[in-house]
Q: What sequence folds into this?
C-alpha cells in the first residue's frame, strides 16, 4: 500500500488527511486505518480524513476513527480539511461547502488563519440523537446509570452523538475508566462521545472528552458545539462561550438562527508518503 498524505492537528486533535479527489482507491486505506493511526506502529492520529468530490457540494469529507469505525462528522477535522484543500489548490475560495454525514457544513478560512465553521443546527430529539427511551423529547439533565453510579446527562447530536455531563471538578473525573462505559451504555444505539464539563463562568467552560471510536483525545470540535448547546439548555452559559480543551480553546456560538458557529485553529504538521 502506498499513498501520499499530510498530517494535521487542530487543538491537538490530529488527523491523517488523504486527497482522494482523483478517485484514489481508498478501500485499502480504510481497511488499514487502525494501523495508520497507531501511535507506535503507524503515523499516529485520532482519525483518517478523506478529501472527496461531491455531487451536491464543493467537496465531500469522510472520517474514519482510529479504531476503524466511521463517524458522520468531525469538527476539528473539518478545519484541517478546509486549510488542506486550499493549500492543495483544489479551490481558490476561502469559504466553501462540504458534504458530510451531518449534512452540508460550511467552513471559512479567516484572514488570521483560523477557520470559522457553520456547523448547522443541533439535533435535540432523543430518537434522532439517538438516545433510547425519550421519544421526540429533549434529553436535558436526565439520569443515566453508569458503572453503578447515577449521573445527570444532557444529549445533543451535531450529526454525531454526544452525551454531556456537568461536574464540579474536572480533575476528579477518571476519564479512561468511565469514558468507555458511557460509550457502550445500551441507551446509546450508535454508542456515544462523552464530554465532562466544568463551568468556570457564563462565558468559559473546561471540557474533557472520551470519543467514540478514538478514546481520550485532546479536543473535539463537534463535542465543543454539543457542550455549548448543553450549557445553554441547562442555563449555565450565554449563547457564546469559549470551550477550553486539553489541546486548546474553541469559540462556539449558538446563534439566533439556531445554527452553531465554531471558530478555532488548524495547522499542518508534515506531508509524507506511506509505503509498506
Ligand atoms: O463521532 C465520533 O465517532 C467521533 N469520534 C468523531 C470525531 C469527532 C472529532 N473529535 C471532532 O472534532 O468533532 C474529530
A:
Amino acid at each position: 500500500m502506498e499513498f501520499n498524505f499530510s498530517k494535521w492537528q487542530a487543538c491537538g486533535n490530529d488527523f491523517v488527511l488523504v486527497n482522494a479527489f482523483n478517485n484514489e482507491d481508498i478501500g485499502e486505506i480504510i481497511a488499514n486505518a487502525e494501523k495508520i493511526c497507531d501511535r507506535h506502529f503507524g503515523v499516529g492520529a485520532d482519525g483518517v480524513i478523506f478529501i472527496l468530490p461531491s455531487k451536491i457540494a464543493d467537496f465531500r469529507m469522510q472520517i474514519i476513527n482510529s479504531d476503524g469505525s466511521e463517524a458522520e462528522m468531525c469538527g476539528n477535522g473539518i478545519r484541517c480539511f478546509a486549510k488542506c484543500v486550499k493549500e492543495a489548490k483544489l479551490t481558490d475560495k476561502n469559504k466553501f461547502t462540504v458534504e458530510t454525514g451531518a449534512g452540508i457544513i460550511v467552513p471559512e478560512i479567516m484572514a488570521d488563519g483560523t477557520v470559522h465553521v457553520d456547523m448547522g443546527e443541533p439535533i435535540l430529539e432523543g430518537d434522532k440523537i439517538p438516545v433510547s427511551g425519550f421519544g421526540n423529547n429533549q434529553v436535558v439533565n436526565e439520569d443515566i446509570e453508569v458503572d453503578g453510579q447515577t449521573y445527570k446527562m444532557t444529549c445533543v447530536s451535531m450529526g454525531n452523538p454526544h452525551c454531556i455531563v456537568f461536574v464540579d471538578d474536572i480533575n476528579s473525573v477518571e476519564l479512561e475508566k468511565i469514558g468507555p462505559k458511557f460509550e457502550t451504555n445500551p441507551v446509546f444505539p450508535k454508542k456515544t462521545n462523552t464530554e465532562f464539563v466544568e463551568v468556570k463562568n457564563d462565558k468559559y467552560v473546561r471540557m474533557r472528552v472520551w470519543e467514540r471510536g478514538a478514546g481520550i483525545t485532546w479536543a473535539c470540535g463537534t463535542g465543543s458545539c454539543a457542550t455549548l448547546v448543553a450549557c445553554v439548555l441547562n442555563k449555565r452559559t450565554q449563547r457564546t462561550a469559549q470551550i477550553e480543551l486539553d489541546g486548546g480553546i474553541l469559540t462556539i456560538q449558538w446563534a439566533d438562527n439556531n445554527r452553531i458557529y465554531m471558530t478555532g485553529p488548524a495547522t499542518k504538521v508534515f506531508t509524507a508518503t506511506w509505503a509498506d
Observations:
- Helices lie at 27-31, 33-37, 75-87, 175-183, 221-233.
- The pocket of ZDP is lined by residues 13, 65, 71, 74-77, 160, 193, 211-214, 217, 220-223 (CB under 6 Å).
- The longest strand covers residues 2-10.
- The CA atoms of residues 107 and 117 lie 4 Å apart.
